Amino acid sequence: MLVVADSDAIFLGGLDLFSRTVARLGAADWERPSPCAGWRALDVLGHAGSAVQFGTQLLRGGRPAWEPLDPPGTAVEGDPGTWWERIAGAAREAVRGVELSRAVDSPRGPRRVGEALSFPALDLFVHAWDLGRAAGADVEIPPEAIEFAHTVIDPMPAQQVRSPRVFGPEVMPPPGATPTQRFIAWTGRDPLWSKASKEES
Q1: How far apart are CA 65 and CA 57, in angstroms?
Q2: More confident residue, 104 or 86
Q3: What letter would DSSP give residue 29?
Q4: What rounded mean pLDDT belongs to the chain?
Q5: Domains of the chain (ranges, CATH numbers)
Q6: What sign results for the dihedral spanned by CA atoms 114, 68, 189, 79?
Q7: What are 72-92's pLDDT values in tens digits?
Q8: How far is CA 96 from CA 7, 70, 85, 129, in A?
Q9: What is the distance between the alpha carbons of residues 77 and 17, in angstroms, rounded to a whole number?
Q10: Long-range CB contacts (within 8 A, 24+) of 48-51
């Protein structure tokens, strides 16, 4: 069974999947609506990039302030792909070789590195799916990431998980749903969300 000690590998895998998804988007895709209500694809990117930057500073021993921008896309500077790869490269460098049992300061107090990486790692996989759907592309979330998500989140109280800052109410997956679709429904998203239907509405 996966445990929080696997969070560095899951985090690096999330960075890779998110990077591959970013590379699939064309210039026009960044202004398209995403499955995250009120957010464009660029806002999903800005949110994910800002969160990764914050985590990278924590891993390096800093005490960054969390100052989310509204909309999150305003955090993106210059070409979106280039902006993201700069952030992802710094994060990969910070994570490799890090001691997962080391304590770091966080907005929630001292936490082990492995614990602190868990939610950012999961966020990358979920938002990679969001980003792909904004561009009309399918993104498959690997089984090990899905298993890790359940290992981390299933023990948590439902009222803590089903909240505006984490996941919405679980959605019923469609008949014959894939593992990714079932996971996305578990996060409170519509696994059949389509950019075409949103653009027509």
Answers
A1: 10
A2: 86
A3: G
A4: 88
A5: 4-143 (1.20.120.450)
A6: negative
A7: 999 999 999 999 999 999 999
A8: 11, 31, 16, 25
A9: 21
A10: 48/18, 48/84, 48/123, 48/124, 48/127, 49/75, 49/76, 49/83, 49/84, 49/87, 50/75, 51/120, 51/123
Number of alpha carbons in the 13 Å side-chain half-sphere of residue 55:
33
Name the pTM for this structure.
0.90
Q: Which helix (H) or strand (E) holds 129?
A: helix 113-134
Phi/psi of residue 111, each to 5°?
-145, 155
Q: Name 197's bridge partners.
A: none
Amino acid (1-letter code) at residue 201: S
- Rg over alpha carbons for the chain, rounded to the nearest Å, is 16
Give residues with Cβ within 8 angstroms of 21, minimum separation 6. 128, 131, 132, 137, 139
- Which pLDDT score, from 0 to 100, does residue 61 have? 76
Assign residue 3 a region: left if phi > 0, alpha if psi is -120 to 50, beta otherwise? Answer: beta
